[in-house]
Every structure is written in C-alpha cells, then in structure tokens.
Design a protein that fits this description.
Blueprint lengths: L2 E7 L3 E7 L5 E8 L3 E2 L5 E3 L1 H19 L6 E8 L4 E5 L9 E2 L7 H9 L3 H8 L8 H11 L1 H8 L3 E5 H9 L6 E3 H4 L5 E2 L4 E2 L1 H6 L9 E3 L7 E2 L9 E8 H8 L8 E5 L3 E8 L10 E8 L2 E10 L3 H9 L10 H7 L7 E3 L17 E3 L7 H27 L6 E4 L6 H11 L3 E4 L4 H13 L13 E4 L5 H20 L2
Parallel strand pairs: 1-6, 6-15, 10-13, 16-22, 22-23
Antiparallel strand pairs: 1-2, 2-3, 4-5, 5-8, 7-9, 11-12, 14-15, 16-17, 17-19, 18-19, 20-21, 23-24
Helix pairs in contact: 4-5, 9-14, 10-12, 11-12, 12-13
C-alpha cells in the first residue's frame, strides 16, 4: 500500500489526514492552537506551537491507523495564506509571532503608500487591492517594530514568509526555504504575470527579496521530512498550496468557469479563469490558482473576513448558542416575518467593499426579532456575502456559473446550504469529504509522486441543493441586504 499524508494548517488549528492509494480519507486528527488577541484587536499565532502540533498530529495519525511510516509515499501541505512571520535563517527561531491574516495592524503602512498614489501599481502587478489583509504590510510592520528583524535582514539572516514556508523550513530541518506560486501570489509582493518577486514592490515595503522564499511549482519538490525523528526514513513533501487553492484543486475545478466557496473562519470564493489573468474593476482580486509543471492558472477571488467566525461569535461572545450545530434548528424556527439583517464587519469588510473602517451592524430589528431571528440573520449574512462575490464573478468573467461547489465545516448546516442556493439561484454541491484543503494538497502530492492519476477526482460524491425560491423573493431579500451594507459603509 501507498499512503499520502495531507496537512492543513488553518486559522483555528492544524489538521492531518491520511489517504489511501484510492484517494479515500482514512482518518482525520486535529489540534487547535491559541488565538493571541490583544485589546487593539491584533491577532497572532505562536509558530513554534503550530510546528510542534504538526509533529504531534503525524504521530497520532500513525498510532491510530497502524499504518507503517515506511508506507507513507508523500506529504502535501495546505495553509492559511496571508498569515506572515519572520525567523532567523540560522537558528530557525521566530523573531515575532505570526501575524494572522485577520489582523489589520498594517493599515497605516498601506495608507502611507496609498497617499503616495501607489495603490494602482500594487493592483497592476499583483492583482490585489492595497490592503493590510495581505502579507506585505504585516511583514513591513515586523521590520518597522521589531528591531531584531531589521538587524537580521541587514545581516542576511532573516527569512520572511507565509506559514507554508515556515513548515517546509522546519520539517526539512532548515534545508529548504520554499513557497509555492499560489501562496506567493497572496503576499502582495509577487508579480503574477512575470511569476517572480517584484523588486519595486518589495522595496516599497522595506523587504529584501533575498529574505523571501524561493517560489516553486505547487506540485514541486519541497525536500524531505522525518517529522522531527518520527520517521526512520524521510518522506518527500510533494505539494504545497494555499488552503483555498488546495480546495479549488481538490474540488476538481480545473477548467475555466468552475467555481468553489470555502467556508471557514472567513470565506474564499474562487473562480478558475484559465491561463491568462482577468483584471477586476469592481473589488475582486486576481491571483494564481496554482502553477503545475511550470504552467500557471489564474483565478478571480473574493475574500470575506467573517463567515464561520461570525457563528463562533454567537457562541463564545453572545452565548446565544452552545454549539454551532444548534444554529440550523434555530434558524429554521425563526419568524419568517422578521426583516432583520446582520453585517459581520467586526474588523472591516473585505471583497468587494474593502472598507477597513466599517464595523458590524444589526439592522431592521423589530419586536419580532429574538434569539432565533438573530441566529438566522448571522447565518444568512454568510450566504449574502458569498452571493455578492458570485454575482460579480459572473459579470467580470463573462462566464455563467453552472454550479457552486462548497467545502468547510459550515457546509454541514443544511439550512445555510439551502439558503445559499436560494439567494444565489445557483445549484450548490457539497462533497462527502469536508476537508477539501487537506485533500487537495494530498491529491496534488499523490499525483506528483505517481500514487494517483486524475481519475481520483471522479470518485468524489456530492450532495446537491437546488433553489426553491422565487426570483421576486430573492430580489426582495437582496435589496434588504444591500441596504444593510450601505448603512454599514455609511457608518450611521
């Protein structure tokens, strides 16, 4: 037998899955890590904690499945994308915690560049809006606020990168410092047409390209790992993808016009647009889907800051539910006459609005609004935000969406999935495998290692949802949502 180990290093925790030679997931194990949040709303992770838990997950998988480590043929890694960190090239020690993608502390740096009229240059070369959401401003913040980081960069000892490059570096014992093209395209430092680090943009952020990882194919060779001595014989790391790109790959969205939405802490909606970029004029971003065997494919993408995290807010902060699983029944039981909306702009709104100053808002509240209605409004906000993106993608790509493939924990919520298809008017397909990011990375590694062939994607079974909402009702609901968003953006 030949097995593939898929690792998904995500925002709330790290997951590891073991796949057999048919592509079937045998077991998933996961471990959460601390969310380090201060009173300014800054969000950090401890990279050493994440690495230690990655090693522990590999050991747990082998112990629970009984699979010999000699039968692991390859490893694939997917990761939370824009989260960025810096570490010493020699000691491997971080100079600061990883700054999470949700963290907007780089806003002043972006504002400084925008005041110089540089936002169009950033968009032209990277396909991305100038925003603290992406990695560049986070890395610049580290250089400007951590004296050790600047000194090490001047001495040529600083590594700066995203979580994939950190894990590859640590898993290979510091021998390999690489990232893949999909992750590089999300840093706001990568020229997506030239497929190389952009010297001009890096200079604007104070970053030396010599401090950045070598960019490789998503199905390239990333060295070998023994997982800190767990394996007697090292195994190759044969695929690396940003988590949303891995999900797109795992969903089998390999042709232009195919689209998926990943529901996680936030959400990523991606449309494969093929071998040439399409430049959005209305708030979407253009990125690389992946680079396979030297050939690049591009995507249009909309990033939403708060989807699953809004449900977590219901549980942990408002204490309206004891678990995310309760929300489905509560939403179904809500009064259909209630007209309340919730816009989850806790730290601003992402695509297509890109307003860092916006703040969350409940609106349309009446005496009909109670616990069940508030829960429903939060769930509905997830679907509305995704509808904002899918409608724009159809407009800007010129491609009509035939089906929306979805993945992530919230897709277990049947109310949410039905409302998603109702409010978009597009059929929604939910795969039986929930962890598409880990699966996409594992399938990429398995293909690269010769364990799988492309037929592996045809084995994925899916549940299909069809819209039952009238066009008139859909437009009524969307009009209410757009009004709620306008109130949020007007800050009234």
């Amino acid at each position: 037998m030949a097995y593939i180990l898929g690792i998904d290093q995500s925002t709330q925790g790290t997951k590891a899955l073991l796949f057999d030679e048919t592509g079937k997931a045998l077991l998933r194990v996961d471990k959460p890590h601390r969310q380090i949040i201060n009173d300014q709303g800054w969000v950090e992770h401890d990279p050493e904690e994440i690495y230690a838990k990655t090693l522990a997950l590999a050991a747990e998988l082998l112990q629970k499945t009984g699979v010999p480590e000699t039968e692991i043929a390859a490893v694939g890694i997917s990761n939370q994308r824009e989260t960025a960190l810096a570490w010493d090239r020699i000691t491997g020690k971080p100079v600061y915690n990883a700054i999470v993608w949700q963290c907007a502390r780089g806003k002043a740096i972006c504002d400084r560049l925008a005041a110089r009229g540089l936002a169009p240059l950033v968009k032209e070369r990277t396909g991305l809006q100038l925003s603290p959401y992406f990695s560049a401003a986070k890395l610049a913040w580290i250089l400007e606020n951590v004296p050790e980081a600047k000194a090490k960069q001047e001495a040529g000892r600083l590594c700066m990168g995203t979580m994939d490059s950190w894990l590859v570096y640590k898993l290979t014992g510091g021998k390999v410092f690489k990232t893949d093209a999909s992750n590089a395209s999300r840093t706001q430092l990568f020229n997506i047409e030239k497929l190389a680090w952009d010297e001009d943009l890096s200079r604007l952020f104070g970053i030396k390209t010599s401090s950045l990882a070598q960019v490789s194919d998503s199905n390239g060779s990333y060295g070998e790992t023994d997982f800190g001595g767990l394996f007697k014989h090292p195994v190759p790391i044969r695929a690396v993808f940003g988590d949303s790109h891995a999900a797109l790959f795992g969903q089998g969205c390999h042709q232009p016009g195919q689209i998926k939405a990943t529901y996680g802490t936030g959400s990523s909606v991606m449309m494969n647009i093929g071998p040439k970029p399409v430049w959005s004029q209305k708030g979407l971003v253009t990125s690389l889907a992946w680079q396979l065997d030297g050939k690049a494919s591009y995507v249009l993408e909309g990033n939403i800051n708060y989807t699953g995290a809004a449900v977590s807010w219901l549980k942990h902060d408002l204490e309206l539910v004891a678990s995310a699983g309760e929300t489905e029944a509560l939403a179904r039981a809500a009064n259909p006459a209630d007209k309340s909306y919730f816009v989850p702009a806790f730290t601003g709104l992402g695509a297509p609005y890109w307003d860092n100053e916006a703040r969350g808002l409940f609106t349309g509240i009446s005496r009909l609004t109670g616990r069940k209605e508030m829960v429903r409004a939060v769930l509905d906000s997830v679907a509305y935000q995704i509808q904002d993106i899918t409608s724009l993608m159809q407009e800007e790509s010129g491609q009509k969406i035939q089906v929306l493939r979805v993945d992530g924990g919230p897709t277990r919520n049947k109310y949410l999935m039905q409302f998603q298809t109702d409010v978009t008017g597009i059929p929604v397909e939910v795969p039986e495998v929930e962890e598409l990011s880990a699966m996409g990375a594992a399938y990429g590694a398995g293909l690269a290692a010769g364990v799988y062939n492309p037929e592996v994607f045809n084995r994925i079974r899916r549940e299909r949802y069809q819209s039952s909402m009238t066009p008139e009702k859909r437009q009524e609901l969307l009009a209410g949502w757009r009004q709620a968003v306008r109130r949020t953006l007007d800050k009234v």
